[in-house]
Amino acid sequence: xxxxxxxxxxxxxxxxxxxxxxxxxxxxxxxxxxxxxxxxxxxxxxxxxxxxxxxxxxxxxxxxxxxxxxxxxxxxxxxxxxxxxxxxxxxxxxxxxxxxxxxxxxxxxxxxxxxxxxxxxxxxxxxxxxxxxxxxxxxxxxxxxxxxxxxxxxxxxxxxxxxxxxxxxxxxxxxxxxxxxxxxxxxxxxxxxxxxxxxxxxxxxxxxxxxxxxxxxxxxxxxxxxxxxxxxxxxxxxxxxxxxxxxxxxxxxxxxxxxxxxxxxxxxxxxxxxxxxxxxxxxxxxxxxxxxxxxxxxxxxxxxxxxxxxxxxxxxxxxxxx
Length: 322
Description:
By secondary structure, the chain is an alpha+beta fold. The protein has helices at 3-17, 26-38, 52-58, 66-83, 91-109, 137-151, 157-191, 253-262; strands at residues 200-204, 212-218, 221-227, 234-240, 266-270, 276-280, 296-303, 306-311. The protein folds into 2 domains: 3-179, no CATH class; 194-322, no CATH class. A hairpin with a 2-residue loop joins β7 and β8. α1 packs across α2 (26-38). The longest helix is centred in the middle third of the chain and has 35 residues, at 157-191.
């Protein structure tokens, strides 16, 4: 989910935790709820201090772990309580606000493609449902509107609570609907004579869950196409896997990390200057032709110091101007 949607959802979730009675420090609770909802993404601040590959793999790792989610909010609530001694914050209520807002971030990120390492540092397995684009216009506009109405100061307490619960309910219903669309689309693809019996992957295109990308593992190649919840699948590309080319880099822990990160949904392309391109096929793009439709790629080279991998900058083709 994008930053603005996370912040808006954090405000709405924080308000649901404050109860029906007005609280003298209510606006502070909403502010800290919004901040807590965005704290997991502060791992991007590590980017200047490590390689681009390490930064990519570190994102949604420890900062999105269940361990940090359990431990950090109570400590932060205690620190905030010290900063606002005169406000007489209730530690338990504030900790609940921070827990819920932080947890809303972790929950929604589960539905994206990137993958979230909830069990870190005990395991680096990334969990993802692949049913929601990073930027979903419906959630962005609706959650932002509800959060703005809530914090405008012109609404009664009951109206604020109604707006907050309405936003939370809308998010849950939308996520359930997105998963339902994914299940429906995958059932139709599995029943298609050209794709039956093959492993497949689906994810929504940017901005909306009304249109989806599918990738079919057809032995030596990947079949990539587009499909809607009610329309027929349209094949847009056949991409050779070329996975045997990775045998020359089998000893590289970095290549192994990329393979785990992509969950095997990658195609290999020789680079004209030597080395390889590894293209992650899980990320959908509005572009329909390749290589323009590749959102995330990895440049693999051999240097004097060993194998070097440099991820490309994520390209988000979400329309004719982006």
